[in-house]
Amino acid sequence: MKRVITIVLTFLFAMGWGGQDTYLYAAGQGLVTDPYLDNGLKMILNKAQDEELTVSDLEKLTVIDLPSSGIRSLSGLEHAVHLTHLRIPYNQVEDLSPLKEITTLREVDVTNNYVSSIEPLEKNTQMERLIVSNNAITSLGVTRNFPRLHTLYAGGNQITSLDGLSGAASLRALDINFNKIESIEPLVNMTSLKELLAPSNQIKNISVLTKLPNLQILDLNQNQITDATYINELPRSIVSLKLAHNPLSNIDELQNMSHLTNLEILDLSGLQLNSLTPIQDLQQLTDLNASDNQITSLEPLKDLKSLTNLDVSKNLIFNLEPLQHLNHIQSLNLSSNLVWDLKPIQNQQFTYTRQGSSGEPPYYGLNLKDNYLDLTYGSNTWSLFTELGGNPEDVTPQGKYQRLQEGSKTAYIGDGPYLLRVAPFLEKGRTYVPLRFISEQLGADVTWDQKKKEVTIQKNDTSIRWTVGNRQVKVNGKTTLYDAPLMLKSGVTCIPLRFVSEQLGTKVGYINNSKTTLIFADK
C-alpha cells in the first residue's frame, strides 16, 4: 500500500501539483540528469544539495563556470534561456544539443571535452568568445552566424577548412593549432585579426597574410610552407613571428626582414638557415630561437642589444665574440655546437633558479652541453664555466679540438699547449697546416716515403696518398684534384686547410681577425 501511495504522489508532482514551479521527476531523475552538473548548478544558485532544481532556477542562470567537474551531459540546460557565459572546460561532454534553442550565449568554453559538433550553437548570434580547443570538431561552419565573434580558439581538433569563418569579420584572435588545415585564404578579409596561432597544420601558401595590416602575433610552426618570398612582405605590425620547421625550398629568398621593426619574438628553428643576416636590423628583438640550422656565425646579432633569450643550439657556431656586448642576455642555449672558448661571454650574467620546494630541477640560463670545451678540472675554461654558473651536467660530453694560429709555433689541444716544428702559414691565399701533427691528433697514422716524397695517411678504412708539389691526391685509390699542392717546408709536410675538412672527417673553423684555425674532431 505504501509503494502505491509513493507512485501516485510522484505522478501528481509530474503533472504540476505541489506548487507553481514544475518538477520533472521520473524514476528518481531530476530536471538536470547529470549529477555533477546538478551539484555544480546548485552551488552557483546557492541551493541545498537535497533540494531539486526547477525550471525557474535554471532561468535565473546567466553564468555557468564549472571546470574539471566530471560533467558528461548538459541535459536540462535547455531551460537556461538567459545564459550568457558557459565555461565547462576539462569535462567529458560529447553533445551540445541541449543548447540548440538557447539564443543568449556570448561566451562558450568547452576546452578538453569530447564535442564533435558545435552546430547546436548556431542561434547565438551575439557570440563573442568561442573556445572549443581539444575536442573532435570537424567544422567551423556555425561561425558564419557570429558576426560579433572576436575570439575563436579551436586548436587540437579535426578541422580541414576555414571556409565557415566567412561571416566572422570581427575576429581578432584565432587559434587553429593541431588541425588538418591546408588553406588560410578565407582569412583574406579579416583585417581586424591581430593573433593567428596555426602551428602543426598543412598550410602551404601564406600570401594572404600580407593583406592583414593589424596582425601582431603569428605562429606558423610545423606547416608545409615552401615559399619564403612572402615572409619578406609580412605586415610591419607583427610583434611575434614563429616559422619553425617548414620545408622552405628557397630559403635564400629570406633576404631582409628589417621592415619588421616591431618584432620582439622570432622562431626560425629547423629551417636549414646558414646565415642570420636577414635579421641583423631587428633592434627590438628580445627572444630568438634559431636552433637546428646550419648557422656558422653570430656576427649579424652583434648589434641586437635588446636580446634577452637566445637559442642557437644544434648549429655550427664556434666563435662567441659577437655576443660579448649583448649584456641583456639572461638565457643562452649553445648546446650541440662547436663552442671552445667562453672568454667572449665571461662578463655575462645568466639566469639561475635553485631547485624548487616541489622538487623541480634547478634552471640554468646557460646551456653548453655537447660542445668542444676543455672542462678538465683546473683548466682555464673550467674556471670560466664555473664562474658563469654552468650546469654540471654539461661537462660531458665535450669533444676535442685543435687550435693553431698563423705565424705561431704554439698549438693547443683544448687548453694544453704544444710546440710545432713549423707554424701555419699562408701561401697563395691558402692556409697551410702541419700534416703529421693535425692527422695524428685526429687518430690517423702517417708514414713518409723519402724517396718518392710521398706521404700516406691511414684513418680507419680511408687511405690517402699525396706527393709533394702535386695537386693530385689519391683517396682509396681514386684520384682527386685540389686547387693547392702538398708542400714541404723546413722538412715538414704541410696540407691546405680545406683538405683537413674534406678528407680527414672533421669540421674546421677560422677566425679571421686573429688568423686562428680551429679543427674539431668528430665525437
Can you tag this structure with a few keywords?
mainly beta; Copper Amine Oxidase, Chain A, domain 1; 523 residues; 30 strands; disordered N terminus; 5-stranded antiparallel β-sheet; 6 helices; 14-stranded parallel β-sheet
Q: What's the helical proportion of residues?
A: under 10%
The number of strands is: 30
Query: If you average the pLDDT, what whole number results?
Result: 92
Read across the widest sheet, the strand sequence of neighbours is 1-2-3-4-5-6-7-8-9-10-11-12-13-16
Q: Termini distance? A: 90 Å
CATH class of the domain at 401-520: Alpha Beta
Low-pLDDT residue spans:
1-28
Please give the count of helices.
Answer: 6
Query: From the helix content, strand content and strand pairing, which structural class follows?
Result: mainly beta
Dominant shape: elongated
How is the biggest beta sheet arranged?
14 strands, parallel
Mind telling me the C-alpha Rg?
34 Å
State the CATH topology of the domain at 401-520.
Copper Amine Oxidase, Chain A, domain 1
Kindly report the name of the CATH homologous superfamily of the domain at 401-520.
Copper amine oxidase-like, N-terminal domain
Query: What is the CATH architecture term of the domain at 401-520?
Result: 2-Layer Sandwich
